[in-house]
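BUG: 3D viewer hangs when loading the predicted structure for this chain

Environment: internal workstation, default settings.
Expected: structure renders.
Actual: progress bar stalls at 90%.

Input used:
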Amino acid sequence: MADHGERPEAFSLFTSRWGVLTDGDGGKLPFLDQPALFGLLAGSGAGDLLEEGKSVFDGPPERVAEQLAVPSVQAWAREWFSSAGLAAPVDFDGPCPG
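Structure tokens produced before the viewer hung:
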């Protein structure tokens, strides 16, 4: 349901081959817009990958998206999400939780 209590008439889902992001303890992340998500990831100590020692996720969403378009950064992010326990597999074919 949306904040205003109405149900959407349609919605879309996609399956990521890399999994979905979690809170690191296997719990769901709240729905966040991109700036909020990138801020959360930057504050988690993620990615001092950049030469100046800043997180890949610091800065405006456009800059973060540009960085995440670089293949070496994508490879790093996949490994980091997995090793940090922030990625969980998706099973849309399994039983629907709760």
